[in-house]
Amino acid sequence: MTAPLAPPAAPEVLARCAALVRPALREAVERLHPWTAEMAAYSFGWCEVGGAPATAPGGKGVRQALAVLGARAAGADGRAGIPAAVAVELVHTFSLLHDDIMDGDATRRRRPAVWKAYGTGPAVLAGDALFALAVETLAAVPHGTRAVRLLSAALTDLVRGQADDLLFTGRPHTGPDRVTAEEYRAMAEAKTGALLGCACALGALLGGADEEVTGALERAGRHLGIAFQLVDDVLGIWGDPAVTGKPAGGDLREGKKTYPVLAALASPAGRALPGLLGSPERVREAAALIEAAGGRAGRAAALAEARVHTAAARTLLARAPLAAGAAADLLTLLDHLVGREL
Q1: What phi and psi, each to the nearest 5 degrees, are found at residue 111?
Q2: Which domain range does residue 286 map to?
Q3: CA within 20 to 30 Å of 208's CA: 149, 155, 176, 324, which one?
């Protein structure tokens, strides 16, 4: 008897989807004004400042892969999800360009961020161009009106989540006005989960899925987004800069209210933490204190919470009537994305 083939590894799934989407993504970017097209190409790692070709590290391509797999989960060819994949990748990149400006992050994927390489005004303009291009891309496809509505709803949530994330920095670490774990989950779902859920649902919509499938995929993507953000929070404190592309402890240096910080603040061991947060000189001390909080706090709590949302996403995918091969690829991708530190 022939042994069953092992499911493809997550990097293979991501690479296969990226190869399918890349030509259409490049074609879309080339429709922009040459200046904004160059900044977009730089942000994707396709060129250097000035337009010289480059092979700089790009993103993981998670959202475009989810759109392709969403179409396949509906029983269609993955190519049906390409317009959705292009649109969500454009929106994701637009959000990164603006996020880097708001957060003051000077680097992205081990290169100067677009605002550092080209200037703040040009980077804002490039982000606006990518957003407009995403809407144009979806408006031209079958079910375009519904697709644009799905994207608009996700963008509204994304902006709400980003607003909350920015406002969290001005809230106290302790007391009745502190940021709660429930508020954090809502922020993470909106800021990160909305677009992941939208990617799955858009791909399924363009693949001809009904409301049951698109709804299940959208909800699973939102749970994946919360888990993804939780793992990002862990990496933001303890991640290897050679892997993450960002300085170690950057979130602590900026005093962000990430989940490990919130969990540690709620524990007796975290009482000294407020005096350490936001101090560039005491980043290691703050990370050690969060780690020492242990148990239900700190790093362990963030990873445990990520597992809860991973399990919820898996349950939704298992219950929905999805095409078997695509469902397996979605599960492989889910485990890979939230298993970076689990």
Answers
A1: -135, 160
A2: 10-338
A3: 155
